[in-house]
Amino acid sequence: MFSHLFRKTPLAWRQLMKEKTRLAVAVAGITFADMLMFIQLGFESALFDAAVQPHRNLKADLVLINPQFQTLFSVKSFSRERLYQALGYDGVQSVNSLYISTGQWRNPETRLDRAILVWGVDPAQPAFKFPEIQQNHDDLKQLYQVLFDQAGRPEYGDVGTIFKKTGNFQTELNSKAVNVKGIFSNGASFAADGNVITSDSTFLQLFPERKPDRIEVGLITLKPGVNPEKVQAQLAAGLPNDVKVLTPEGFAETEKTYWATGTGIGFIFGLGVGVGFIVGIVIVYQVLYADVSDHLPEYATLKAMGYSDRYLLGVLLQEALFLAFLGYFPAFFLSFGLYQITYAATLLPIFMKLDRAISVFILTVIMCSVSGAIAMRKLRAADPADIF
């Protein structure tokens, strides 16, 4: 139907171009609505990606956690014995462990303490895929040596720059002197504004109340060619129910689910997208309604000539789709700039994704089409008898 209408006459385009000021206002409104949706969806995606980045960079095929584990912000531990039990299953090549807790990092310049996520690892077995950690793992073998996340918040101090210049950085962590022996890049997240990696021995010195046999994450590496899902099922069936067996991606989804559904964050971002959608509908409806009102006699004449309501609805929908295209593309390109500004201000990994671009475009088309359908009610009132 629409292809026939486009071939038949450019009526919709001519009507839009006739009132250029009205067209400019409509395009600006749709662009604003789309940018609002882009920003809300971009923030949500960036915050979720930042929250699960450590999970997805774990060097493991399977992960053991406490079934009550929901987020790194409030970790739950379990017995290291479960990890040793997992080592006895067919297909398991090696196991490793992680301690996780929140410490207080002191900025040596301001002397202010700030919460930071501390990861305790076995220096002999790299627990993360970050290349910087792989290269500097041996530096953790001595006590009170740490690797610092240079992509964290600047309130921790200019650690990365100073370390690159001098090869050394000294400060305090939980009121104990530590030396930065290397840097890596993970970034701030919901759970923490920054990260520190240290050896398991140093971790237990920094947190003396912690018991060595209680760990937060167990890492399982499988033998080459082994099916992870099969081993996961065997471990889930054989190990006691005080541990849960997940893939690294499943572990990441646990964290993401907590922030999306266990807090108001998912609702807030969804509400922002909804507001942008409604704003767009109102703006496009106002433009189309005004256009129909201004040309009501012409539409009545078309009806008198035998054109159906279906045809006239098609004209309105064409106008709506033109507006959708004209408003979407400026918003798409402007969002790139806003993402860059947001990244510079927050250090969150916010960037354009193909699925987000497609989703917003579809929402824009629906938004404009709904407005056109609503405006059609005015068009149905165009009575040919009124003009004779």
UniProtKB/TrEMBL annotation:
The UniProt entry lists membrane topology as: Multi-pass membrane protein
What positions belong to coiled-coil segments?
Answer: none
Q: Which UniProt keywords apply?
A: Cell membrane, Membrane, Transmembrane, Transmembrane helix, Transport
The membrane spanning regions, by residue number, are: 21-43, 265-290, 311-337, 357-376
**Cell location:** Cell membrane
In terms of superkingdom, the source organism counts as Bacteria
The GO cellular component terms are: plasma membrane
Q: Residue limits of the ABC3 transporter permease C-terminal domain?
A: 274-383
Database matches in InterPro entries: ABC-4/HrtB_transporter, ABC3_permease_C, DevC
- Pfam families, per the entry: FtsX
Q: Can you name this protein?
A: ABC transporter permease DevC
